[in-house]
Amino acid sequence: YSCKNTIHLQYVNGKKKKTIKNIHCLSVFIFLCLNSQGVRKSYREVIDVSWGDPHRAGVKPLSFVRQVLAACLYPQLMDGDKLMVDVKQRAQRLLETCAGGSVGSYSDTAGIPQIIQSVSEYILRRDGGVPCHPENIYITPGSQWALTVTNILKVLVNSEASPRTGVLIPVPCHSTTIVSLTALGAVAVPYYLSEERGWALEVEMLQQALDSAKGVCNPVALYIINPGNPAGNYVQSRKCIQEVIHFAAEKKLFLLADEVYQDCVYGKESEFVSYKRALAEIGAPLSDTVELASFHTASKGLMGECGLRAGYVELVNLDPAVMKYIDNLFSNSCPVLGQVALDVMVNPPQPGDPSYPLYLKHIRASLAENVRRVEEVINSFPSFSCQSLEGGAFAFPRVFLPPKAIEKAKAGLQPDTFYCMRLLEEAGLLFSPGTEYGQMEGTYHIRFCIMTPTDTMEEILKRLSTFHKQFMREFILFASATERETK
Amino acid sequence: MSSMKEVNPMVLGIRDPVSLQSLAARITEQIAQGEQKPFQRVIDVSSGDPHRAGMPPLSFARQVLAVCLYPKLLKESSFPVDVRQRAEKLLGACNGGSVGSYSASSCGIPQIQKSVAEFITKRDGGVASDPEDIIFSSGSQRTLKLVLHLLSSGQGPTQTGVLTPLPCPHTLPILLDEVGVKLVPYRLLEERGWTLELEELHRALKAARRHCEPRAIYISNPGNPTGHVQDLKTIEEVIRFAASERLVLLVEEVYQDSVFGQDKKFLSYKKVLFEMGASYSERVEMVSFHSISAGTMGECGLRGGYMEVINMDLLVKNFLTSMQGPCSPPVLPQLALEIMVNPPSPGDASYEVFTQEILQKVETLTQNAQRACEFLNGVPGMSCQQAMGLYPCLHLPAEIIQEAKRSGLRADVLYCKKFLEEEGVCLGPGSENGHDDENYHIRLCISAPAAVLEDVLKRLQSFHLRIQDRHH
């Protein structure tokens, strides 16, 4: 197990010497500098868009969900008219599902039954009537890789087996994947997404990945992220999904479909189709035999309630005997408040409900505007190239770094990490370097979250543009570092 | 298609949970659908879940959390001033001022780590606690799992073993299975009120070394399910034992604020460790666990807990902190933890109500413990040690034992099942706590309103007598 991207830098800060371990630590350090020492920077505060954390970036939470949660925690709030009728009704209904009428009680290990029912109804609606059985749904404390996928994989992966178990994962992919797979004793088998085609998934790449695994490990599962992270640009088409399913069926791979950004699709030609639905539409025998686990969460999408930690997994076509063991593994109940948030996510206010107007007036509008501005600004630089954004919460543009910058970086840092560290120090913007996600050799990318208030995004783009121009000038025009220092 | 033969052998090895709670849920469902039963509703006292049993939450905690969730309430004058001030302070500690953001670090929110460290320092009479040694997670079980993962290795004779009390918390055996660690029991002495005896530790360790590699010893103090509170002499003996045998101490102290009504006082292992001098306090590796699920908070559904890591090698500790890396602990329970370690002080607007609520709980628990113990000791065929936990020993008629054998159940599980079906009360069978021989026990949580407990006791008495009569 190795820590990816561990960077050691010694910064002397007056009395204390701190060892900075990675880019996130650097940001905390800079934050402290700004606040305590009066160190002069051209910016007042660091804007952190390195996580998929809209609230951190300044997006306000959905009022309805917060009101319901507050009422569940402190039912006395429902006295009088402080809260709207639909809030009270929802809170009351949910409190009745809790043991002792309190969110402080343990819930059933799979989740509160009535909430599971709500989730299954949501799935049914979303998939145009494809049946959904509550017994196949488990509510889990958010973070797919921490618990949900890990639990499924625990069943599939035998860490003592030889050859070792393999899982196909996309490149680029969010960093927790590799870490978690390694911790389980599995081998990550990369398949490359095709950047030139807007980060499309192509079945030939899946086959190439399988070929590369021969003699190295035994692949049992295929992990898909749709819409993608970090490359949300590509929202898989129905045709693509069906091809993937056929491939998985043929090669006997367990499909792990990470669909947490299903609510974030904004490309005009794009439509989210769930793997489950596509599978059902293919029909028998595949629809009865291909094994699928699909994941969703309240942390992403429009709710963005990462701190509440709530998600669910739906399991399709698993052997009932195997389900019993899955059942045993999901033995740690999910926080009740997280489940409440999940209920709101799958069952939001409807037209006609008193809370509906406020619910609508939310992030959706600003997201569309952000996408437009990001594409506009980024694509105006020849040294940037950004595939058109169709879904997900991030932009993942490619940056063409000048040879001198790459050289300068080589002394211990990946070039894109070097770019991001400079970006942080000089412009107060915290992005994530593409190295953390995997990329084709010799290419460099940066990732940033686009779910922010529109004025924050303007500020981000402004700082990025200024920094980028300076950075490029520095490494293209000046022949050596010393020349820069004398300026 | 994955079939049974492809399932990871370690997963197959996880023992099946006893499913009394699902039976309880089914019966509740039946009642809701109008089926007639000899009782109105199911009372579940099998786990430490006070709210489920009807104990009210602490108002201050709930008010602060509600405001944190919905900050518009900061302007709500019906909330006491100190509630609003605390919520403001806590929101300031959250990224983006929202409980919906990820925690700043994978160990938790720094200001809250600091609060917890201060609480521990004060509790231990000045023994310093470093905020960097505090790691949050969603419940003490999860934090325990993280540590066990580090310790777990090997197979067969090299498999890691953990010395575990008998009886132990009922969730522990399954947890150890999941991590692939061998449970090595050391018996607590029932006749003396469930004390921990040094000779028994030695015996258990020696026996364990024959078939696994014991690397840690798990302590529950105050004991779960027994309620026994360890004295200074015992704690010192255990620490010396752990030091000389090079075992990591895993000390679960989640009931530390539920010690009252006796001449006993809670002593933290850390404090005792540090009073034993540098040769121990600088070498013995210890992890102590606490959570908001137990004690007077009783907020099991919020899932919050922390561990304090003492004398752990820095490199190992780094692994521990990064293991939780991608999944930072939920924010709201951390806020609840902050409230737990930093309750209202004298002079604060909420202080009186808060103190009253705590006093009420203390009274209820103390009375419950005493009443239950006396009562059950008066029931022929039952005997109960006096403590804050209720874990009576049962004498079961031979016919029950045989019926159990025939149905493939353990006798105490069958007993609890019948009790649930006939009287609508869900208890915990001692086999979940590790008692898997003829030493039958049942487990009841006393954290319930007095009237509820009275009802449970009466029903238990009548059921137990019926059972014994039936089979004469």
TrEMBL record, chain A:
| A biological process term (GO) from this entry | L-alanine catabolic process
Q: Which reaction does it catalyse?
A: L-alanine + 2-oxoglutarate = pyruvate + L-glutamate
State the top-level EC class.
transferase
**Domain of life of the organism encoding this protein:** Eukaryota
Molecular function terms, GO-annotated = L-alanine:2-oxoglutarate aminotransferase activity; pyridoxal phosphate binding
| Necessary cofactors | pyridoxal 5'-phosphate
Give the EC number(s) listed in the UniProt record. Answer: 2.6.1.2
Provide the alphabetized UniProt keywords.
Aminotransferase, Pyridoxal phosphate, Transferase
Please give the pathway this protein is involved in.
Answer: Amino-acid degradation; L-alanine degradation via transaminase pathway; pyruvate from L-alanine: step 1/1
Cited Gene3D superfamilies = 1.10.287.1970, Aspartate Aminotransferase, domain 1, Type I PLP-dependent aspartate aminotransferase-like (Major domain)
Q: Which residue ranges does the record assign to the Aminotransferase class I/classII large domain?
A: 83-464
Q: For this UniProt entry, which segments traverse the membrane?
A: none
Subunit record text = Homodimer.
The family assignment reads: Belongs to the class-I pyridoxal-phosphate-dependent aminotransferase family. Alanine aminotransferase subfamily.
Q: Which PANTHER family match?
A: ALANINE AMINOTRANSFERASE, ALANINE TRANSAMINASE
What is the protein named? alanine transaminase
